[in-house]
Amino acid sequence: MSSALSLATARLAFSHTPRLDAELLMAHALGVRREAMLLRHLDDPAPAAFAGLAERRAEHEPVAYITGARDFWTISLRVAPGVLIPRADTETLLEAAVAHFGTRSPRTVLDLGTGSGALLLAALDQWPEARGIGVDRSPDALAVAGANARRLGMADRARIVAGGWEGRDGPHDLILCNPPYIELGADLRREVAGYEPAAALFAGPDGLDDHRAIAPLLRARIAPGGVACIEIGSGQGESAAALFRAEGLKVGVRRDLAGRDRCLVVTP
To answer: What range does the domain containing 106 cover?
Structure first.
């Protein structure tokens, strides 16, 4: 197995994380967690299924679509083609929310553009007393998010419903949103451009079309003492914040672990 991992790692050199990719695919072929594979199976023969999985990755298919899973915050999610793959950068929104509420817990959470349900379900795992709504226009996203809520035992606290940026019900203590924010024509890695849904990526010439749509709708949805945490691209801190300030909202910008602008922290 060690030899197979080394060969796959060399073949996946285009990836930012070739060895990790190979290990995740090997663990998936074995039907175990990566940690268990590293601890107990490195001396085993490589399973026959591994070669096919590595071949798919060599074609730049994302690991999460091949394995059907992605860890995010404190939960593990099922993911599938047609739904955006959750990124570690998006955890910045949850960090901002935790900082805002401190020892308090939000009672209600609204996740706009819920996708796989990542933000909503991570928030409900963080705050077991909370209830929430995940809204999305995509039938694929609604199916995946609903299945994730059921698998994680949160179906009684998480409603997954069809809708747009106007959201549902409220006002809500916590609003989370990872809208499309990539400018049209941007040069993306093949594994993103070739596999992930364009509707979840692109938002007009400057990447801010969806933020423009969200800004005028937000005030009525935020409860007193609440907060909205909205993802942005790394160069959009000031331009995106200005859209919400123009609606009379207070806006701060929180950076991700790499020091890049990543989250608007919006309060009434």
So the answer is: 70-267
In this structure, are 159 and 258 located in the same domain? yes
Long-range contacts for 17-22 (Cβ within 8 Å, ≥24 apart)?
A: 21/57, 21/63, 22/54
Domain of 75: which CATH number? 3.40.50.150
b/e code 75-110 from CB counts within 10 Å (16+ = b)? bebbbeebbbbbeebbbbbbbbbeebbeeeebebbb
Q: Is the domain of 121 the same as that of 14?
A: no
The strand ranges marked E within 143-214 are 158-162, 172-177
Please check whether residues 90 and 186 belong to one and the same domain: yes
| Pair 119, 90: CB distance under 8 Å | yes
Least Cα distance to 30 among 63, 60, 1 occurs for 1
C-beta atoms surrounding 4 within 10 Å: 17
Same domain, 126 and 222: yes
In whole angstroms, what is the distance from residue 156 CA to residue 128 CA?
12
- Residue 229, classed as helix, strand or coil, is strand
Domain match, 154 and 31 both: no
Is 206 in the same domain as 87?
yes
Q: Whole-prediction pTM value?
A: 0.95
pLDDT per residue over 206-229, tens digit each? 999 999 999 999 999 999 999 999
Question: Is 64 domain-assigned?
Answer: no
Cα 126–chain centre separation: 16
Q: What is the C-alpha to C-alpha distance for residues 195 and 81, in angstroms, rounded to an integer?
A: 7
User: Cα 159 vs. chain centroid, distance in angstroms?
Assistant: 18
pLDDT in tens, 125-156: 999 999 999 999 999 999 999 999 999 999 99
How many domains is the chain partitioned into structurally?
A: 2
